[in-house]
Backbone:
C-alpha cells in the first residue's frame, strides 16, 4: 500500500483500539471517528474526526484519501444488531468504494453452525443457527460483493473471545470483573469442554502483518487459533496464578438464573443466544494463516493474563 492512511471505526473499543495503536506503531497515519472527539483528542496521537458510524456523510468525510478502513464498531451489549450493524457496514463499504480502499473486518465464530463444528476450517460452510450469526453472514456477503466489484478489497480475520488491555465488555470480564481483586473466578463453561480465546495485542499484530503481506486476494479471510483452552481449566488456572493464589475458588456461571432473567433483560437475552459456544468445543483452525505468515503471533498465556488483569485493576 502506498497511502499508509487508515480510518479506524471503533478506535475507543478493544479490537479497534488495539489495531489503531499497532497501525500507528507501524508508521500508519491513523484517523478515528468519535461523536465527541474533544474527549479523546489527546489519546494515542490519532487524528480524531467528529462523527457517527451510522451517518454516511461522516464516514465518507473521515475516509477521504485513506487506503484502509478498519470496521471495528459494534452496538454495545450485543443489542440492536438487526437495526444498526448493516447500515454501519454499508457506510463503510460506500466510503471504501469512493477511495478504492481495503476494509479490515474482525470476524466472529457466530457465522458457523453445527455442520462446521468442532474444528472449523477457514473455508467451512456458514450455516448458523442464531439470529446474530445470520446477520454476520449477511455482513460478509456484502463485503464479498464489494470485493468482487473490484472497487476495493477486504481482509477478514476471525478470532476467539477477546481479552487483553482495553477489552471491557467481554467474557473475560465475567471471569474476573474489573476494579478489584476477585474473591472467586466465575467460569461459563463446563470442565472438559474446550474454549478459544484471543489476546488483543496478538490479534492486532496478526491483522497488521497480513495487511502488509504481498499476495492477499481481493477477498481474504483467515482464522486465528489464538489461545486454545483444551479442557476449560487453563484460563482459570492462569488467572489464579496471576492472582498469586492457587486456592482462589472457581465457580460456575449461574445460567439458570440468567435464563429466568432473559425475557426481561435484553442484554442477557442476547448473551443466552451464544451459550452454545460454552456447551461444546468449537475451535477455528489456522492453516491458511500459518501458510501466509509462517506462524501465528502468540503471547504466552500467563503473560497475557497477567497483563490483562493488571490493566483491569484486579492485581
Residues:
Amino acid at each position: 500500500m502506498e497511502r499508509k492512511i487508515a480510518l479506524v471505526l471503533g478506535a475507543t473499543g478493544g479490537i479497534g483500539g488495539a489495531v489503531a495503536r499497532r497501525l500507528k506503531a507501524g508508521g500508519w497515519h491513523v484517523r478515528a471517528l468519535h461523536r465527541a472527539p474533544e474527549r479523546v483528542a489527546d489519546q494515542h496521537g490519532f487524528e480524531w474526526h467528529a462523527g457517527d458510524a451510522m451517518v454516511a456523510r461522516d464516514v465518507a468525510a473521515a475516509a477521504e484519501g485513506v487506503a484502509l478502513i478498519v470496521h471495528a464498531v459494534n452496538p454495545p451489549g450485543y443489542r440492536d444488531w438487526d437495526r444498526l450493524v448493516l447500515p454501519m457496514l454499508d457506510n463503510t463499504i460506500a466510503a471504501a468504494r469512493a477511495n478504492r480502499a481495503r476494509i479490515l473486518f474482525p470476524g466472529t465464530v457466530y457465522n458457523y453452525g453445527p455442520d462446521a463444528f468442532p474444528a472449523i476450517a477457514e473455508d467451512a460452510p456458514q450455516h448458523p443457527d442464531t439470529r446474530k450469526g445470520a446477520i454476520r453472514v449477511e455482513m460478509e456477503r456484502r463485503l464479498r460483493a464489494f470485493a468482487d466489484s473490484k472497487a476495493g478489497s477486504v481482509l477478514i480475520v476471525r478470532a476467539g473471545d477477546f481479552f487483553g488491555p482495553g477489552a471491557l465488555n467481554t467474557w473475560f470480564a465475567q471471569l474476573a470483573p474489573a476494579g478489584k481483586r476477585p474473591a472467586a473466578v466465575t467460569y461459563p463453561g463446563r470442565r472438559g469442554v474446550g474454549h478459544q480465546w484471543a489476546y488483543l495485542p496478538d490479534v492486532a499484530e496478526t491483522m497488521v502483518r497480513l495487511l502488509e503481506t504481498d499476495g492477499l486476494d481481493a477477498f481474504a479471510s483467515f482464522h486465528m487459533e489464538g489461545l486454545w483452552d483444551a479442557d476449560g481449566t487453563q484460563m482459570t488456572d492462569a488467572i489464579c496464578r496471576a492472582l498469586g493464589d492457587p486456592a482462589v475458588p472457581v465457580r460456575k456461571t449461574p445460567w439458570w438464573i440468567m435464563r429466568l432473567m432473559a425475557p426481561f433483560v435484553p442484554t442477557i437475552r442476547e448473551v443466552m443466544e451464544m451459550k452454545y459456544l460454552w456447551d461444546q468445543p468449537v475451535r477455528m483452525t489456522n492453516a491458511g494463516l500459518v501458510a501466509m505468515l509462517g506462524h501465528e503471533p502468540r503471547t504466552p498465556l500467563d503473560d497475557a493474563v497477567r497483563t490483562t488483569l493488571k490493566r483491569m485493576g484486579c492485581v
